[in-house]
Each structure stands twice: as structure tokens, then as C-alpha cells.
Amino acid sequence: MNQIEVIALIVAxxxxxxxxxxxxxxxxxxxxxxxxxxxxxxxxxxxxxIAGGIVLAILLQNLTIVQIFASMLFVISLLVIGFAPxxxxxxxxxxxxxxxxxxxxxxxxxxxxxIILIIWLFYEIFV
Length: 127
What we know:
Elements (H helix, E strand, L loop, with lengths): L2 H22 L1 H13 L2 H19 L5 H19 L3 H12 L4 H24 L1
Helix pairs in contact: 1-2
């Protein structure tokens, strides 16, 4: 099994476990997994940066940044399908929490990462 297959297996295993818990006992998932993970945004961000960096390094051994970005549209589509039933709640969240003066302060790391990746993509495509 190669590294990409291992990553895919980890994603599929995690998704399977999550789907089972969310289907059978969503409160357990929320109280014991989601709540604990999201209650510490600095730790969640740190873990995501580490995992994302490792996965990106492995993917770049076999794929280009252009291919990775193209596949991100598939993931984004899945996220939209998942969030669409909660669109009214998402719009309220955006109005109340995101559309304020603290957006940059709260999201600076994500914004910087996106800017770097987008510049890299444009460089690969146009230069």
C-alpha cells in the first residue's frame, strides 16, 4: 500500500466511524469528539496545519498543485451538499460572526495559507 492509499484509507475509516456515530448517536459524537476538538481553536488549527502539511507533502510526490486544486472542487462540492440543509443557520452565523471587523484577526492564518496556495497555483499555470 502506498502513502496516498494510506491517506485515503484514513479518510475512509474516519468518515465511516463518524457516519456510524452520527447515525446511531449524534450526541455522543458531538459531546465526545466534535466539542472537544473545536473547543480549543489553537490546538485544532495546529493539528490541521501539521496534518495538512504532511498530506500536501505526500500528495506533491505524485500530483501537481494544479491537480490538487482541481480535486479540491470535489471536496468543496461535498461540503456544500453537507452544509446546504443548514443554510439558514450558516447565513446567520456569517452575519453575526464573520461579517464584522474581527474577520481578519480571527481568520488570518487561513487567509494567509489560501493566498500562498493561490499564488503558487497561478505561478504554476501562468509562468
